[in-house]
Amino acid sequence: MSQNAYALPQRAPLYQAPPFDYKAFSKVSVFCRVDEAAIRAALPAQFDVRGDVIEFFIMDVPAGGALGSYAEGGIVVPISYQGRPGGHVLYEIVTNDDSMAVGREVWGYPKKMGEVEWKASETAVTAKLSRRGTSLIEIDFKADGPAFEKPALHPRFQTRIIPSPENAAVETQIIENSLGQSETLRHALGRAEIKIGGSASDPFSDFQIREIVGAEMIVANFVLGFGKIVG
Question: How far is CA 4 from CA 12, 16, 225, in A?
Fold first, then answer.
């Protein structure tokens, strides 16, 4: 049995150590203005709200290095941590267990297992994110839309929660994570229709969209490496 495994089970770890080399992933994002109070209510106490425009996204990953192929989607909100601007992934749904586990255990991404429907061409994307039979995000994107100002959502700042095995206490770390060697292969601004659903366990619908600020589709490469404990 290996004593140097990075993850459980030790003889056959669910995932290996980063980095993960992502090739030609596709992502559609819709940036929407929402009630700032709704962001504040959902945000971990360590972070401050930095604006009212948030990102709803769904992405298809055909090659995520050792993580293989999967898809995911979620919500990213603009925050600051100790005066430093960035983004916080508030909710995130993925379609495979190794991506879910490594995201939660290493960086503190709030990943849960769910389903993604994805249909794309060079100029359009129709995508749906759902979990346990509940639709969470539905996006119908078409290229050729106006330019818009995007909120700065990098680096990511996440809360990594480590439960105690003895009681209900937890240890919380703040993890800073940045994408490395990012290379955009294709980028298109566009127009999108979006529907948000939710449930008590996945409260995406707490965010009522007041305005669609803009939408985009990208195809890109990046390397997902180790993060840094900053708090």
Answer: 11, 11, 19
